[in-house]
Amino acid sequence: MDTASPKRRVFRRAESARVLGAACPEIWVPRVDDGYIGGSVLNRFLVHPQADSFHFTVLVRDPKKAEYFRDLGMTAVVGSHSDAPLVEKLASEVDVVIATANCDDFGAANATLRGLKKKYETSGVAPIFINTNGLGVIAEYSKGMYASTVVYDDSDAVQIESLPPTARHRNVDLAITAADAEGYIKSYIILPSTIYGLATGRLVDAGIQNRHSMQIPYLISASLDRGQGGMAGEGKNIWGSVEIHELADLYVVLYDAIISKPSVGHGREGYYFGESGEHSLYDIGKAIGEALVALGRGDSAQPTTFSQAEVDKYFKGYVYLGSNARCRATRSRSIGWKPVKTTSDMLASIRPEMEAVIQKKAAAVS
């Protein structure tokens, strides 16, 4: 990277929350305007000790929201990550990409890689690509009937390489790590577990960023409709969890480690789990049930099994949360990430999340 450059140029695709950056970089983050992770990551970078040296460029879908980012001193481009030529062009102009958008968007990932390869060919320096995956890549579907004994560790490259190429999200991972092996990028893949908590920060306050995660709010919405907490099978399956702001910290810690220690693990050694505890689906179902009773929306705190009709109604026929996805963030912690939130914090977050969901639904119909 060009350490003589006075500014780190950042291209941020606010539309899908993807960030690009380097050691005096241009940084790109897509879908920040509705991105739960991307907006939270950007908020962390905006208060980075060296934030004044970053130049952010954002790609947004809404021209009005683009003006907000321009007011913050960023360059805002109105467009979409589905525009492959545009994505390729913007990636070719940056030093670091931090991608937090759809981890199954193979087309956007490939367009980004093509652009970063052009960057490498013109600069001679491999740009940084921090991509976001999901624990679906290690998920073992148990229909909620048992807890798996298999626990993945991000420091075990051999274990991760044993994942089949047909695993969920895996095709994108393999394309990115293959590019690292070719030498034209340095790749780092962050894999968050169940993300919880209401996002806060200036983008939320401005009405730009989505406050809600997906997994727990989906369960809350379904449970509000049925008047009782729900689960797949007996809810015995186990997932890891991580609080949204602590997850955002991981991106900054990783970025700082990359810049200060060029030897930090990348490629096959570059997987970083976001995990600070684990829970069963039953635990979440019960916490939802308790919140329903406390808010006068249910009569029993005991969760019950979703019927097939409910699975079809709420989850399009497939209760993905009935799977196991257990992990340990050994490598993430080794670079200085220090999450302090626990499973108890995750369960305690469910009632305020439910209150926010109820408020959002009421506002939508008023």
Automatic annotation (TrEMBL):
GO cellular component, one term: cytoplasm
GO molecular function: aldehyde dehydrogenase (NAD+) activity
Residue ranges that the Swiss-Prot or TrEMBL entry lists as coiled coil: none
Domain of life: Eukaryota
InterPro entries (alphabetical): NAD(P)-bd_dom_sf, NAD(P)-dependent_oxidoreduct
Name the record gives this protein: NmrA-like domain-containing protein
Species the sequence originates in: Mycena pura
Lineage: Eukaryota, Fungi, Dikarya, Basidiomycota, Agaricomycotina
